[in-house]
# Entry
Amino acid sequence: MEKTDWTKYYQSPYKTATITRKITGRTLVRILKKYIKYPKGILLTELGGANSAFLELLIDEFNPAKYLIVDNNLAGLEKTKERIKEKDNVVLLNRDILKGNFENIMSDLVLSVGLIEHFDEKGTRKAIKAHFDLLKKNGLAVITFPTPTFLYRIARFIAEKMGLWIFHDERPLQIKEVLEIAREYGEQMEYSIIWPIVFTQGVVVFKKK
# Structure
């Protein structure tokens, strides 16, 4: 299967991305404020977060003591570097999340947006586990992923026919697959679907056991 060219994507994201990111961002903030009782000063890790669409939003809302971004795409990390200020307390880490080696990092919150679907079943399992490996006890994992609703399938079919689809290795995930893996490591808090973005995204929230 052809791999997604993330460097090309970071250089020229979808034109609709601005709208969908705002919707997803509002959803993330609502969820996090629901579960994080004392948000100021948290240790936050975003996996697959190169050129994060939510960097400024999450800094403004939660003012984390440290915001760690882990990604294996150097071009995306360079774009992130252009956006951050010293006071933001952002640390960039060039790592393959499937290989671990996170240097004993432990966070209060680990999140990813549209990451775990870009692997085969074995890789998806490793990617989900990585969230919990980086969490403190009772820390929060928030994971979003495309899920194959009728709306998603129709939208993707049209995009592919028009030659606009670039996420070639995206494997929309059934909620059952994600929940079964995550339940091995944490307690399920909630699950929902973000419908307005058309390419529907499932959102799961887990507390580490």
Q: What stands out?
A: DSSP finds seven helices and seven strands in the chain. The radius of gyration is 16 Å. The chain has one domain: 6-208. The chain has a mean pLDDT of 91.
